[in-house]
Amino acid sequence: MINLRDKGAQLWEGWNRPKRVTFAVIAVAIVGLLPFGGDFSFTSILNTPVSSYQSVLVYPVGMFVLMALGLNIVVGKSGLLDLGYVAFFAIGAYTAGVLGIHTHLNTWEILPIGMGMAMIAGVLLGLPTLRLRGDYLAIVTLGFGEIVRIVALNTQSIGASTGIPSIPTPPKTFGLKFDIVHNNSYFWVVLILILLVIWMIRRFTVRRPGRAWEAIRQDEDVAILMGVPILRYKVWSFSIGAAIGGAAGVIFASKTQYVAPNMFTFNVSVLILSCVVFGGMGNIWGVIVGGVILAYLPERIRFISNARQLVFGIALVVIMNVRPDGLLPRKKREKLGAVKEAKEVPNG
Amino acid sequence: MNFSVLTSQFWPLLINGLAVGLIYVLISLGYTMVYGVLRLINFANSEIFMVGTFATVIVTRDIFKYTSAHEALHGFRLIATLLLILLASMLFSGVTAVLVEIVAYRRLRSKGTNRLASLISAIGTSIMISEAVRILTKSAPVPTPRLLNKFFLFTIGSVKIRIDTFLVIISAALIFFMVDRFVTKTLLGKAIRAVSMSEETSKLMGVNLNRVISATFLIGGLVTGAAAFLYMQVYETTVFNVGFNLGLAAFTAAVLGGIGNIRGAFYGGLTLGLFEQFASAVIGGQWKSVTVFTVLVLVLLFKPNGLFGEAIQQSRV
Q1: Which backbone phi and psi does B69 adopt, to 5 degrees?
Q2: Cα(first)–Cα(last) distance of chain B, in Å?
């Protein structure tokens, strides 16, 4: 099968700086203008039949891409299977809810606090559990995701099963209004966050943390022998992923203006994981494509809305069996390592 | 916090804990045996359990045509019917388990992809099964007709033992004993143990790896199906996600006893069942899954090989 990822990378590496900048600017501009796509006749095919198209672009599409990028640092870059990513999303959303109701802080001031809270949760969960290997981590994070929901469900002071209603929307910023009819503003905020995250991941990848994560993913024992402090970098990867989840949570809460425990079920974790796996673990562009496809299609094609989880389940199995590296796999060089790793005999 | 229940309710909690614990023991066998041979968590085991509970309902309701208005059965007819339903439930779960192995693990194993891939495809299979059932049942809980007239059998100390609790404790213990015998005494059991010690060496000794792995899934599925049947005799309703919490608890039980270790699963399940009953009596039933999870994290932190486990090799992804 053709490897679009490598073709794209070749093209990109052949360009000089002005060409790259022009391309990036045009790409961002096209994406930034997407919310208007529903208004013109030739692009109105994008319109979603049930929910408003502009709203769908924010949640689920933008939000899932953002979270998938965050989870990609944990699952794709460092190879740690996190099945409770929704917990960090929930922590961010609840932070926005509680602080928005009880204090005068606005959404932009809450955003770093929400990220910080999610990060702290990530470190607290990560320090004991990241010493474990692979499948244990999966089940512990799965449990953690549920625990956060159960705690929210049984704590009266944060609304128990009814959740927190009437969370304030962000204030008017740079002439942009944020409320239920101005979804475009939210979309641009999410887009900016996505761009920041992409920039951050690209920086990390070529620097020490990225190399450490790559080493951990390929072979932990070798990484230890090479002197990589694996626990520290695992906790970093985990908590950076958590912070991105927290940021998504804060924006989500200020958009829906309401949070409740039943929004943060295991299904959401699975969905985000599907986005990462479907698109191609470890590759930013693959993850983005995966997120867009898996979040947008169920909204566009009505009949798979109810069966959405089923479709994701099937997608996970099929993708793993047919194309284990996802639609747009990571670079060849990195993949060579994966092949070596696989050939090694798992002796019991 | 209400510590007085520990003394006033001691016997009922103990008996319930035993019954719940033994159900955990059976489900955790599905995890522990598969982990033994594959060194992978069988993520779909909770769904295999769920299929078993639905098989119980379908056989009772649609094949035997019993309704909730039907009066309870007695004597030989009761025993024969229950046995048939048990067999059907085991069969359904066993077949599901074998299919799960073929769909989620076999192809990836033969290709030699990394373990993360198998793990994710197992999770995908598990979601597939539970979502299919959710859509078919429209997320509604499904009750099963009661066949067993639930009378109190006898009294131990201050507690009256109900027939269904008694049934669970006796049959689960019996089934566990049979599995243990099977694995230690038969040739296939020997092959399973050989594969869990070293896949490579057992292959060299002429063990048919795929057959042994299928058999392990089958046995795990059969036992989980039996657990599902027993669960349904006590709780009498099931829902598409019934396996989620039970699966997490059973996995915890397996880890508690040292995953991969069959006798360990027995002690782990009992310990967890008892602990869970007493703990939720003290701090409230809504925190039950939180206590289970806390136990899991603490065990993994301080005794990763389990409280009763022999040292097993560290797993890796």
Answers
A1: -80, -15
A2: 41
- CA A266 to centroid of chain Cα atoms: 15
Contact A307 B104 (CB under 8 A): no
Q: What DSSP letter does each residue of B88-157 carry, written as one string?
A: HHHHHHHHHHHHHIIIIIIHHHHHT--HHHHHHHHHHHHHHHHHHHHHHHTT--EE----S---EEEEET
Whether A317 sits inside 8 A of B198 (CB atoms) is no
DSSP structural state of residue B162: E
Report residue B251: phi and psi, to 5°.
-65, -45
What is the least distance, in Å, from the CA of B301 to any CA of chain A? 6
Instruction: Specify burial of residue B75 (Cβ count, 10 A radius: 0-12, 13-18, 19+).
Output: exposed
Give A316's contacts in chain B (Cβ within 8 Å).
120-121, 123-124, 127
pLDDT 10s digits, B172-186: 999 999 999 999 899
Cβ–Cβ contacts within 10 Å for residue A173, how many? Answer: 13
To 5 degrees, how large is the angle CA A18–CA A22–CA A25? 135
Residue with tokens 């900016």: A192
CA dihedral (A287, A219, A213, B303) positive or negative: positive
Which of A71, A77, A136, A303 is the best residue to mutate to test the B interface, defined by the most B CB atoms within 10 Å of its own CB? A136
**Phi/psi of residue A288, each to 5°?**
-65, -45
Nearest chain B Cα to A308, which residue? B131
Residues of A in contact with B204 (CB under 8 A): none
State the pTM of this model: 0.83
Distance CA B279, CA B288 (A): 8
Q: CB–CB of A143/B293 below 8 Å?
A: yes
- pLDDT tens, B119-166? 888 888 998 999 899 999 988 999 888 877 777 777 777 777 888 888
Residue pair A311/B80 in contact by the 8 Å Cβ criterion: no
The two tokens of residue A166 are 């009437």
- CA–CA gap between residue A10 and residue A326 (Å, rounded): 19
Structure ipTM: 0.81
Pairwise CB contact (< 8 Å): B116 & A146: no
The answer to whether the CB of A221 falls within 8 A of the CB of A68 is: no
Tell me how crowded residue B59 is: count the other CB atoms within 10 A of its CB.
22
Output DSSP code: residue A236.
H
The minimal CB distance from A136 to the residues B113, B290, B300 is found for B300
Dump the DSSP string for B206-230.
T--HHHHHHHHHHHHHHHHHHHHHH
> 3-class DSSP state for residue A28?
helix
Nearest Cα residue to B222 out of B77, B20, B34, B21: B34
Q: Cα separation of A130 and B245, whole Å?
A: 23
List the alpha helices (DSSP H) in B9-106: 10-38, 45-58, 75-100
Note whether A46 and A53 are within 8 A (CB): yes
What are residue B76's phi and psi, to 5 degrees? -60, -40
Q: Give how far A339 is from chain B: nearest CA, Å.
A: 8
Distance CA A77, CA B235 (A): 44
Q: Are A299 and A56 in contact (CB under 8 A)?
A: yes
- Give pLDDT tens digits for B26-62: 999 999 999 888 888 888 999 999 999 999 999 988 8
Alpha-carbon span A131 to A230, nearest angstrom: 9
B290 vs A147: CB contact, 8 Å cut-off?
Answer: yes
Give me the amino acid identity at A161: S
pLDDT lower than 50: segments of chain A: 334-337, 340, 345-348
